[in-house]
Design brief:
Length: about 625
């Protein structure tokens, strides 16, 4: 203790005097007030409060502490029950806490495994497989719900607590033998829940459902994990069918808030529907029927547009709209990069690649007398744009900033962007509230279209070839890059392996992300120089050279996904190289080679944990 504290007049050096039989409380308070009044002015109210507080400290002498003594013969089960009952009167424990307490007594290793899984998810060891992911940092009680749901087909944990105590639900009798059997079931199911391969295979369902950010409802994710594990481990549903169905289910559960208010009740009902299901076909049939019964025409036409009339960025409606745009490969507004690419969680930058832009800026609405936050921040007033475009819009009116942001694009591209963002010609001149109403209806239609594509009934037709002029005038992006040459170093006038390597990096990045187009014979700023700079004998030789490069250095699978053609552009011949998205990870120069992705109009190399995470999430 510092000398300055000891010398402070407010310091009571020996508080034990308050409980001494020889001490008088009135005298102690009076002396204390007299001492501190020499250094500060005290009001009557101050004196009263100080006296009351000292008296309260002295009253601790009357506080009774209850001690519970347990005999040496008390069983472990009885000790666990005492612990639960005592703690339930202090910290509000939930049913998961009670079950975890039982596990600590009868299967402590199982509880430790849950906790270790959660630690590994938050702090993965570099280079080692782990449960780490971008959707959820699970807690032990969340994983416990998955384990008991799989083991006992129950969601209400109060029933499970009784089961694990050894209760026979038919006879209501308890026995050690029954408890042992139930813990064996839990032990087996928890092993499946914590299996890293199953865990990451399930998370691919969430990725397929269009989600790229942290999931706000951990309960929804865990209940979907239960359904996935039932289908995968018990009923042997084919993986492709199971992944698509669980993706639909997660999409539905999120958009309807199925498990957010009375989650246990809803999941209990869903599991009841599956109790007599014994084969893969019936399992998928039950889930698809429930999907159809939930997402009716009235839901899409009435309920969903009304649900979009909110302002919270935490709303599931906004999350599902974002997922829908990812599913539909929608570009960010005023951009050629897709929202899915810009939301890629394995890539980080000082500023988020994509931001929510107020179509009607807050400052502009304030000038018009609309300043209420819930009204300004309506979901229907938000659209995803790249951050630099958000800066350009600033506080201008839509009618002012639109010409600037749409100027680089042909009208056909603007119309396409409007379609994927629920916008329409003339929206910028409408009354604000009328605009919100019309856009909500269009946003609901976009979400429905995404769900139909996810269901396999609304897959988009293969897009026709995009006009080369439109591609080049649109500039470089996540999906477009220009290269002056394929092999020739324009400074030395000689073929250069580094130039070829740069082109292959771009191709690999497109293959590993969402596909894209490489234009050879055009400079970075869009000026044509032509393929003649590469000094090939003819176009056939250039074609064979590219094909050999891709096959030899990116692999045979990559070679089937890369297509090229020669076209005329401003009196020059250029090569258009179109890359499809690869279903498997593509490495430059073999499995131990370099791995590239596209982001922020550049090709980035991933290594270490970023590489492991990206491959686990995308392939």
């Amino acid at each position: 203790m510092s000398a300055s504290i000891r010398q402070d007049s407010v310091w009571i050096p020996d508080v034990s005097l308050l409980w001494s039989k020889e001490s008088d409380l009135f005298s102690i308070v009076s002396e204390y007030l007299e001492r501190i009044s020499t250094s500060r002015e005290l009001t009557a109210e101050d004196r009263k409060n100080i006296g009351n507080r000292i008296a309260r400290v002295q009253s601790l002498n009357n506080f009774r502490i209850t001690a519970l003594v347990l005999s040496a013969e008390t069983s472990e089960e009885e000790i666990a029950e005492v612990f639960v009952r005592i703690n339930s009167m202090g910290k509000a424990l939930n049913q998961a806490d009670f079950i975890l307490t039982l596990m600590a007594v009868f299967w402590d290793e199982g509880r430790a495994d849950l906790e270790q899984f959660c630690r590994d998810a938050r702090e993965p060891v570099k280079g080692q497989p782990s449960p780490s992911n971008h959707f959820i940092d699970p807690d032990p009680d969340q994983l416990l719900r998955a384990s008991v749901g799989l083991a006992f087909r129950r969601a209400r944990l109060q029933f499970v607590y009784s089961i694990l105590q050894g209760k026979d639900l038919e006879t209501n009798e308890y026995s050690d033998e029954t408890r042992g059997r139930q813990f064996d079931r839990l032990r087996y199911s928890q092993g499946l829940v914590l299996d890293l391969q199953l865990w990451h295979d399930f998370l691919k369902c969430i990725h397929e459902a269009g989600f790229r950010r942290s999931i706000r409802s951990g309960l929804t994710l865990m209940y979907c994990y239960v359904l996935y594990l039932i289908g995968r481990t018990e009923l042997k549903v084919p993986e492709a069918t199971l992944r698509r169905t669980i993706a639909q289910w997660f999409f539905m559960a999120t958009i309807t808030g199925r498990y957010t208010s009375n989650g246990e009740t809803a999941m209990e009902a869903d599991l009841a529907q599956l109790r007599n299901v014994n084969d893969a076909e019936s399992f998928i049939g039950v889930l698809r029927k429930l999907l159809g019964d939930t997402l009716t025409g009235d839901f899409w036409d009435i309920t969903l547009p009304n649900d979009l009339a909110v302002s919270s960025t935490l709303s599931p409606s906004l999350a599902i709209y974002e997922a829908a745009q990812v599913i539909l490969d929608a570009p960010a507004l005023f951009s050629t990069a897709t929202i899915g690419q810009l939301l890629d969680p394995s890539l980080t930058a000082p500023r988020a690649d994509v931001e929510r832009h107020h179509l009607w800026p807050r400052a502009y609405l304030s000038e018009k007398g609309i300043s209420q936050v819930p009204r300004v921040n309506q979901i229907a007033n938000l659209a995803y744009v790249e951050w630099h475009d958000n800066l350009k819009a600033g506080a201008k009116s839509p009618a002012e900033y639109l010409p600037v942001l749409t100027e680089p694009f042909p009208q056909s591209a603007v119309d396409s962007m409007y379609e994927t963002h629920g916008l329409f010609t003339g929206w910028e001149t409408m009354e604000y509230d009328e605009f919100l109403q019309q856009r909500r209806e269009r946003m609901a239609a976009i979400i429905r279209r995404a769900y139909e594509r996810l269901s396999g009934g609304g897959a988009a037709a293969e897009p026709g070839p995009i006009d080369l002029t439109a591609i080049i005038e649109g500039g470089e992006s996540d999906a477009v890059e220009f290269k002056s040459t394929l092999r020739m170093n324009l400074h030395t006038g000689k073929p250069d392996g580094r130039i070829e390597h740069a082109a292959l990096k771009t191709v690999a990045g497109f293959l590993n992300t969402a596909g894209g187009t490489l234009i050879v014979g055009v400079t970075d700023d869009g000026e044509p120089v032509g393929i003649e700079e590469d000094q090939f004998k003819n176009e056939d030789h250039m074609s064979l050279h590219l094909t050999s490069l891709v096959k030899d250095r990116l692999g045979a699978t990559a070679a089937t996904l890369v297509h090229h053609q020669f076209e005329e552009y401003e009196d020059h011949r250029v090569m258009r190289v179109t890359c499809e998205r690869s279903p498997v990870a593509v490495y430059l120069d073999g499995p131990d080679g370099e791995f590239f992705v596209r982001a922020t109009a550049a090709t980035l190399q991933l290594t270490g944990s970023a590489l492991v995470d990206y491959v686990a999430m995308h392939f």
